[in-house]
Amino acid sequence: MGYVGQHGVATLRRYKYSGVDHSLVAKYILQPFWARFVNLFPLWFPPNMITLTGFMFLLTSAFLGFFYSPHLDTAPPRWVHLAHGLLLFLYQTFDAVDGKQARRTNSSSPLGELFDHGCDALACAFEALAFGSTAMCGKATFWYWFIAAVPFYCATWEHFFTNTLILPIVNGPTEGLMLIYLCHFFTFFTGAEWWAQDFRKSIPLLNWVPLVPEIPVYGLALFLMIAFAVIPTIASNIHNVYKVVEARKGSMLLALAMLFPFGLLLAGVLVWSYLSPSDIMRNQPHLLIIGTGFAFGFLVGRMILAHLCDEPKGLKTGMCMSLAYFPFAIANALTACLDDGNPLVDEQLVLLMYCLFTAAAMGFSRSPPPYLSLIAMAANSSNSSGEVVSNRTMMTATSGMKGASFASGGSGVLDSTGTTISMTKQIQHFSDLRDQISTILSTDKASTLLSKSIFIISAGGNDAFDFFSQNKSPDSTAIQEFCEALISTYDSHVKTLYNLGARKFAVINVPFLGCCPYLRSQSPTGECMEPLNQLAKRLNGEIWDLFSDLSSEMQGMKYSIASSYELISSLIENPQAAG
């Protein structure tokens, strides 16, 4: 499914980000620090990699919380709170400097904004889980995700209408995150139990408060943040959107309709949790919040993309796609009423499927489509609609600009390997797609697009396997001739790709072939075929030298080699090292 139409493509070329941060803490304390911190990154370091690295800090933090407090109701070791605080501080810092790196390297783009804010949307879930372990929130952790997600969604909604991301004098990305990591550091000294006991015990100055039932500190903090942060922020967002809609003579009802998918998400989760026979919010908080966080990320991403592409204001029906799982989950919970509290499908499995479904809706399950499938789909669409053949080219090129796979199972570097589509033919298919893209974008723009694309090559293993299948005990001369032929052909293929516009190569080398299950089953002792492993090792050395030489010869060529050989051999030789 495509997300960007022709109007969107044209709009993306003109898009310019606009944002205002009124935070005094950011202006006088953090901005000077961030301005110096960004200089630690070399100019070649991509801004999106800074964003991703910052996001990985939060993933690490959430994993620590899960490992030491699976239900978020037991106290982890105190050093975990310190780690949570440091990791969140690093996330905030990296999230702030990625944009500075983009401006520093003149690489700002709509994609960078979508990736940055998309990661921030997912971060709401993982930081809520980290704080849940620090404060022993248990099932109340969901509501900490709620107080992060609601202002985030409303700010994105406001940005959609005002075209400027407005951060007030006190805001979540600055003061909000700072407050949270200070709470993590504070808990390092007090222990998580401080949050779980009645607030009158934890805060002696409040022990005089009468007529209030026993409330844990995290519950009081939740109430105060909703009352004094979330509600005023939402009111400000609605007011700002109302002013824009009124000025444009638009419909406020249509604007509010864009909040409907998020409301539906919250309603679906709460109804499911209420009916759940296994109390999923208490017993499976990580799965519930991660799955909901993925669905939230999809909603935010679709709204950001609609803004980037200047789509019409109003409800985006495609945003509801990630919510289609709830009827099944709720119906399954209801079946427990018919069978003494036992649902038709175990709820832990339902939660796992929920996470997978929402991840798939976000696109995590998608890989580049096969090129020949793009050709077939374009041909079928053209035939059914009566369009001219030139439109097939447009459809194929438009899809191919998002990525395509030219691989063929069983093929190799040498055309003689396998009986499928040879690598030479695969490169010809790429050349055809390149020509089709050039007819849409122009030759220069197509060259720019391809120079920024990553070309993944995984080849050589089938060639080596085929060579040994035909030569049971090859002598050194035969091995030498085979290696020379393969490397020479590999060299030719890479140069052809370079001449067609490829500049960035990700190479997966020849794997640890001699220890594959089939060959070990053929050995009376179950041992690996060591000569084949030695050939793979030799080829990998020559492939490394080949790309090193080519990168010196060909201007602008960059490459990275992933050693599948080392990965697999280390697991086989020392399996206990991986746990």
Automatic annotation (TrEMBL):
Gene3D superfamilies to which the protein is assigned, alphabetical: 1.20.120.1760, SGNH hydrolase (3.40.50.1110)
Cofactors: Mg(2+); Mn(2+)
Which membrane topology term applies here? Answer: Multi-pass membrane protein
Listed pathway(s)? Phospholipid metabolism; phosphatidylethanolamine biosynthesis; phosphatidylethanolamine from ethanolamine: step 3/3; Phospholipid metabolism; phosphatidylcholine biosynthesis; phosphatidylcholine from phosphocholine: step 2/2
Lineage, top-rank taxon, reads: Eukaryota
Q: What parts of the sequence cross the membrane?
A: 49-67, 142-166, 178-197, 217-238, 250-275, 287-305
Reactions the enzyme catalyzes: CDP-choline + a 1,2-diacyl-sn-glycerol = a 1,2-diacyl-sn-glycero-3-phosphocholine + CMP + H(+); CDP-ethanolamine + a 1,2-diacyl-sn-glycerol = a 1,2-diacyl-sn-glycero-3-phosphoethanolamine + CMP + H(+)
Where is the protein localized? Answer: Membrane
Sorted keywords for this record are: Lipid biosynthesis, Lipid metabolism, Magnesium, Manganese, Membrane, Metal-binding, Transferase, Transmembrane, Transmembrane helix
Q: Which GO terms describe its cellular component?
A: membrane
| PROSITE patterns registered for this protein in UniProt | CDP_ALCOHOL_P_TRANSF
Which InterPro entries does this one have?
CDP-OH_P_trans, CDP-OH_PTrfase_TM_dom, CDP_ALCOHOL_P_TRANSF_CS, CHOPT, GDSL, SGNH_hydro_sf
Q: Which GO terms describe its molecular function?
A: diacylglycerol cholinephosphotransferase activity; ethanolaminephosphotransferase activity; hydrolase activity, acting on ester bonds; metal ion binding
What's the short name of a Pfam family annotated to this entry? CDP-OH_P_transf
Q: What does this protein do?
A: Catalyzes both phosphatidylcholine and phosphatidylethanolamine biosynthesis from CDP-choline and CDP-ethanolamine, respectively. Has a higher cholinephosphotransferase activity than ethanolaminephosphotransferase activity.
**Similarity-based family:** Belongs to the 'GDSL' lipolytic enzyme family.
Quote the protein name from its UniProt record.
Uncharacterized protein
Species name: Oryza meyeriana var. granulata
